[in-house]
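[Help] Beginner question about ligand-bound structures

Sorry if this is basic. My supervisor gave me a protein sequence and a SMILES string for zinc ion and asked me to "get the holo structure". I don't really know what that means in practice or what format the answer should be in. Inputs are pasted below exactly as I got them.
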Amino acid sequence: MSHQSRRDFLKTGALSTILLGSGIALAGGCSAVQSRGKTKNVIFLVSDGMSAGTLTMADLMMRRRDGYPSNWVKMLQEGTIRRGLMDMASANRIVTDSAAAAVSWGCGHRVNNGSLNITPDGIHRKPLLPIFRDAGRSTGLVTTAEITHATPAGFAANVESRAMGEEIAEQYLQREVDFLLGGGNRHYHSDQREDGIDLYEKHRQAGYLVARTKSELMNGNPAEGKVLGVFSDSHVPYTLDHLNTPEDLQNVPTLAEMTDLAIQNLSKNPNGFILQVEGGRVDHAAHSNDAGGLIFDQIAFDDAIGIAMEFAANRDDTLVIITTDHGNANPGFNSAPDEDFDSIGNFRHTANWIRSGLNRDSSISDIRERFEYATRLEMEREHAEIYREAARGDYRAAYSRMNGTSAVLGQILANYTHVNWVGGSHTADYVELATFGPGSEALEGFVINTQLFDVITESAGVKEFIEEKTEADV
Ligand SMILES: [Zn+2]
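Answer (accepted):
No worries, everyone starts somewhere. Holo just means with the ligand present. The predicted complex, written as structure tokens, is below.
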């Protein structure tokens, strides 16, 4: 079968066709047809921008520092989850962005980078959360990025551009998403929205518990089961900074805590639920070549996997999907003494935190002091001089995208940790896919991103609620 005809085959969306097209055998008594409608609940966990090296380094850090493996790799080791390799390309690029990536899962179509559930032909495709809502299921989005960020929005919104955060926030309300937890106050607060609308008040009127702190979230009683929790102006803090900032520890819940609360509430619906959980800041740390930020946030994501599996492990009605939307900067630990890698586990703050306190006028001693406080490592003077050069815009790397302070600081840090990077952007790598529960049998081997939508809607028995609209009125 030619590549083109196979792609057309996949576009038909019928699961049986996909199984034939991808060469997956139906032997073994667990065909997708038999599991039709078996999936009551779907938990879709995305570590945004997770290269394979990120998964490896988080697992290594946990084994060496804590004495036990990550949930993700442990489940692979024990054979409790299935493993696939997934092609995440978008409609117009080999390298996707988070919007097109989430949309490929959210509505089963490839769109151009930046677009949310509107295909290049202009058709608005109904995403998973409204489909599940129409099937009587509860719906939720949890993230450490802004709640309106591209990944959660790919499961619930239809807009031309991922930058339309205010519209996305309104669509979540119109579409009655039951559980919304993350950052992004700037898209809700009347002082910061361009139209001056108080979106928090609109949620209260619609029966939502509105929480702005961890205690408001944990102690609140959502009478109708609907919750909007917004814990920061933009994204919630990096885990590493969060752990070492008492005020944040008190006010901002962890991804695992948010996931736990969402599952507890959504699972009260006897018809079931769909929940998307995003570790959104793994991507941001990778963009900034920030090894501490990256590894600690990947570990926080892994904690959320543990919560999801605690719920799903002893049931046969919950499909759990664990994956990433694209690689990012492809970090890896280069050959060096193990202790150099271990030093990352002692960091107090992210590289982002180091940079945020410095500027072009910072002295060599300012730079060294901040670096040394954040990493507990002694900084050589020549490295502080290189950083100052970058801060003044005078640094020239051979790969010109590595001229900025984040890439330069990332490479300076690599002299101590030996974790280094290929760039500061998303990469074309096929990505890790791990699945558990009914429907997962169709997601082994090599998987095309859009297949996930077909498997989810088929195994949950909600295909009749898929519809196409030429206007955003789903
Ligand atoms: Zn990104």
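A couple of things worth pointing out: Confidence is low (pLDDT under 50) at residues 1-36. The first helix runs from residue 3 to 11. Feel free to follow up in the thread.
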